From TrEMBL:
SMART domains the UniProt entry points to: Aldolase_II (SM01007)
Cofactor annotation comment: Binds 1 zinc ion per subunit.
Known cofactor(s): Zn(2+)
UniProt xrefs under HAMAP family: Salvage_MtnB
Keyword list, A-Z: Amino-acid biosynthesis, Lyase, Metal-binding, Methionine biosynthesis, Zinc
Homology family: Belongs to the aldolase class II family. MtnB subfamily.
Catalytic reactions on record: 5-(methylsulfanyl)-D-ribulose 1-phosphate = 5-methylsulfanyl-2,3-dioxopentyl phosphate + H2O
Positions bound to Zn(2+): 95, 97
MF term (GO), any: methylthioribulose 1-phosphate dehydratase activity
Protein name: Methylthioribulose-1-phosphate dehydratase
Occurrences of domain Class II aldolase/adducin N-terminal (ranges): 9-195
Gene: mtnB
SUPFAM superfamilies on file: AraD/HMP-PK domain-like (SSF53639)
């Protein structure tokens, strides 16, 4: 199997998994994988990520330009490229729109969501105990993705659990698709726990 075919398989499987968990409603979400030659395999804009076919995955360069001019990559391609540029270990990037991420990030105007004392925090890089707090930055949503990327840029190097865009969704990455999916699943579990706790505390 070629590197690109392998990446397509990873992306299709990730789309199905995210859809099965309700994290990519309608045409929401986007998925990518770094290729050995330095290009990025990424979902086309506007497709349902649960029903992706091989032709729903295209290639872009590190600046987000499609290698075939006629292809239209994800509207959020620049956020993927930014992650690959800033983290040379990143091999896969996932973006989803869960109910928990959407609602929790709209409950307050806080610039971060702090997750504390959960066993599952150990899914994130460098965490070895539940006796810890992980801060997940929350950025204001913006339809101007280049401008949004500019706001995210200074936070690289201190985002072990990814980040949230307010009222929109999460971005998570890992060295490969398996790790990225585990982080996404861990983060979404924690966000669901937080949402549940806040509802019960009312
Ligand atoms: C269903 S609206 C969601 C989009 O606006 C966007 O946020 C998104 O996640 C998917 O965009 P896409 O261009 O398909 O990658
Ligand atoms: Zn989105």
């Amino acid at each position: 199997m070629t590197d690109f075919a392998h990446a397509v398989r990873d992306i299709l499987q990730a789309g199905q998994r995210m859809d099965s968990r309700g994290w990519v409603p309608a045409t929401a979400g986007n998925i990518s994988r770094r290729l050995e030659d330095g290009a990025i395999a990424i979902t086309r804009s506007g497709g349902h990520k649960g029903f992706l076919q091989a032709d729903g995955v295209i290639t872009v360069d590190m600046q987000g330009r499609p290698l075939r001019q006629q292809d239209v990559p994800s509207a959020e391609t620049l956020l993927h490229c930014q992650i690959y540029r800033n983290d040379p270990t990143a091999g896969a990037v996932l973006h989803g729109h869960s109910v928990a991420a959407t609602v929790l990030s709209m409950l307050s105007a806080d610039p971060a969501l702090v997750l504390s004392d959960y066993e599952v925090l150990k899914v994130f890089e460098g965490q070895t105990t539940h006796k810890t707090s992980v801060s997940v930055p929350v950025f204001e949503n913006d339809q101007d993705i280049a401008r949004l990327a500019g706001v995210v840029e200074p936070f690289f190097g201190r985002m072990s659990a990814g980040y949230i865009i307010r009222g929109h969704g999460v971005y998570v990455w890992g060295k490969n698709m398996t790790t990225a999916l585990a982080r996404l699943e861990g983060l979404e579990f924690l966000l669901a726990c937080e949402l549940e706790r806040r509802k019960l505390a009312r």
